[in-house]
């Protein structure tokens, strides 16, 4: 049976176009019920049981459930529990869910595919007895509700006349829409809300806790604390008229009553302050902003402020402290555009990890949840398991934020494990940073070759055989995902200069990862390998990452080679690319390679090759720096981990040797060479990487701090900036220049992937590397961007067209956005892992260490301990210290504290707040009477501090896009307490 719909539409040229759509209806679609004796089911098609046992006390008879769209969208956490079975999911619901939330849609498909759950998908939109047309003037939502009621009635009738013995399960419609329930009851349909149903299910502890509290926020006007949000139409009109602006809200980590929003057309972010100014926006939300008149603009408060209120009622505290700290100023350079949130355009909520705050009342069911992420406000949830959950890390989903609630409302998703348990804490890190870390699916594993795979003969015929070339890899200790190797050999001479063949050989991951396979899709979704202190979350399965794609010593491997002819001054004479087969002569660590270079007695081929590479790398580096490349630094460390418990037992600075820079220089050169090639061949769809120049405002605080030390830093160009950094040296403070570079790094913007056709050529520039064009080619084992680049390069070299997806600009731009998101979150996860292991290390440990001031706040100093690469706030009492906001200094009598000052601090761990265990910094020197910590001389010993090197938070993370600075010399000696 066919139905047709005819539409008339007007084209851009003004022509009238007639569109006819046909809809095919069938009468042979199966109901899926074992109670039906008419539908010709096969055994595997009988999903719904003949006489299912009712789990709900409200309905003491066998029944099937039909769910409406909103129940699925908002209660997916409940549906994933085993409590509900024999559920009918209509096509109408599936399509609506897919349209509104793809993540929930995928979770629903996973439930349906689990045969034990007995969820049956019924194609009601193509059944002749359940399909309905949309009435004139009827809203789509109303039509869909009517379609769900129609299908529910049909199921009841169908089973009643086709049951085996006249006994059949009843059909219950579960919907939270009161009007829909009313209309259903008028049609004789049994119905109830999801809350009523779940609250009467027995045998599943904690199921009620998972119910979503999805209250419409703007309907709660009684005792409202917050202004109402504008409607979508009001927001649209306001933005169109230029009265409102759209931006992404970013909450402050240091001040819970402050945040900002990035808005197009404004050089600086828009400052948002106070409960009313933020108006229920949560970090990441896309919001509508009303910007205040210029005379009301302020500068950020410069105060560290935490929400420490103990389970407050629905009241908002006075914000005079915040406002006093952010008074309007006359200096145009310091003021920031200020505004308020007037509406939410799109929520970006996710599930959050944290702990339950203990209630003051015994037996209470309403509790506050404290998220691990400081930028997220506390959440009100209801649970009857508080005594059990009090010692657990838990996962909570946000549901709504009514106007009359100080905090958003949410519900429990699941417990993650005991607080302090290493596995539970690592799970928190991965979930908080949205790192995909589930086991690879069977579909993905089925894409892999056998464990004993060897290179096929036909593949050998297609490639350049480089097995006799002295290729070797140089990586950190313990690295198993070796994705690059190098070689260099003398060719002869040209114009009186010696010439060399130099090759970078990269693992050919794309041979194994074919486009649009399950393996490829999973790698694209993960986007990057994530390195924690004690584990690695691979982008591709271990068979590839640590075996078949890893360029291990003495084993034949497939590679993609970039080979140059160079003269002795590191000038590139020619470049070629080809697929190859290599057999690495050695897999070396940085230190092993450095020893081979330095050992003059070694005359072997490997040592000779490394010496040539090292000599050329130094010349390449000089050229880059002369062109304006920045040599920056960041505070990082490396942990020594117990081989059995995987707990940290000591921390050490990462050692930097010449071979670190040697490998880096050739990786940079390979990336640049490949970028030029793929852009030449595919000017509209090349995957590139850019690093925008920082806006001048980013340097304000940095320049003022440098000026206090007597240095004028020229940031007009990256070349002048690099020159200024090189000259800013204090001989008696050898760590000062490194510290300056650490602070300079924080002025930078994030580098990002992009598709060439999406930006003008003058936006391709990489500021940090002083490079007009750049990409990522050298790490396809751990970065999906490199996989895309390999495919483009292969098409360029072969002269054949690439896979169709690579030419789809919209798809590639969306992929670039995913790559940037995953890359950023992988970095943050690595840092969080360092913080976790630092807390474990300092659990029973107190140290007195040298520190330096990174920033001066109104009530605190942000200090860095070079030995550990740790930083945090050292709070200063206002009754003792006076803050000069013009000079950014703190004074107490003769003691003046400013940025870059050297201090001695006592470092310990405060575990009183289980959610936010934190390192406590106490001032030792300079001594402030009545405030500074005074060590007990009888329990102290003098100890030298190890050298602090430029860091790496990734245990096996090999390359840095912006090179780290050289190791810092030893600070002055300090005192160190014995372990307690």
How are the elements arranged and paired?
Layout: E1 2-10, E2 16-24, E3 63-67, H1 69-74, H2 76-79, E4 87-90, H3 91-100, H4 102-113, E5 119-122, H5 140-162, E6 170-174, H6 178-186, E7 190-192, H7 194-199, H8 232-240, E8 245-251, E9 258-263, E10 270-273, H9 274-278, E11 286-291, H10 320-324, E12 338-346, E13 351-356, E14 366-371, E15 379-382, H11 386-389, E16 392-400, E17 409-418, H12 422-432, H13 442-445, H14 457-462, E18 464-465, E19 472-475, E20 484-494, E21 497-507, H15 518-526, E22 530-531, E23 536-537, H16 542-548, E24 556-567, E25 572-583, E26 586-589, H17 590-598, H18 605-626, E27 638-641, E28 648-652, H19 658-681, E29 687-690, H20 700-708, H21 718-727, H22 736-745, E30 752-755, H23 784-798, H24 809-841, E31 847-856, E32 860-865, E33 870-875, E34 882-884, E35 889-892, E36 895-897, E37 902-910, E38 918-925, E39 940-943, E40 974-977
Parallel strand pairs: 3-4, 3-6, 4-5, 6-7, 10-12, 18-25, 19-26
Antiparallel strand pairs: 1-2, 8-9, 8-11, 9-10, 11-12, 13-14, 13-16, 14-15, 16-17, 20-21, 21-24, 22-23, 24-25, 27-28, 29-30, 31-32, 31-37, 32-33, 34-35, 35-36, 37-38, 39-40
Helix pairs in contact: 3-4, 12-24, 18-19, 19-23
What would you note in describing this structure?
There is one protein chain. The protein has 980 residues and is α+β, with helices and mostly antiparallel strands. The protein has 5 domains: 2-203, 3-Layer(aba) Sandwich (Rossmann fold); 218-346, OB fold (Dihydrolipoamide Acetyltransferase, E2P), CATH 2.40.50.690; 442-687 and 769-828, no CATH class; 693-748; 829-977, OB fold (Dihydrolipoamide Acetyltransferase, E2P) (Beta Barrel). The chain has 24 helices and 40 strands. The strands form 12 sheets. The protein has a 5-stranded parallel sheet with strand order 5-4-3-6-7, sandwiched between helices. It has a 5-stranded mixed beta barrel with strand order 8-9-10-12-11. It has a 5-stranded antiparallel sheet with strand order 15-14-13-16-17. Strand 16 (392-400) and strand 17 form a beta hairpin. Helix 3 (91-100) packs antiparallel against helix 4. The longest helix has 33 residues, at 809-841. The chain is globular, with a radius of gyration of 32 Å. Residues 942-980 are annotated as: Disordered. Residues 463-799 form the RNB domain. It is found in: Cytoplasm; Nucleus, Nucleolus. Pfam families: OB_Dis3 (PF17849), PIN_4 (PF13638), RNB (PF00773), Rrp44_CSD1 (PF17216). Residues 63-182 form the PIN domain.
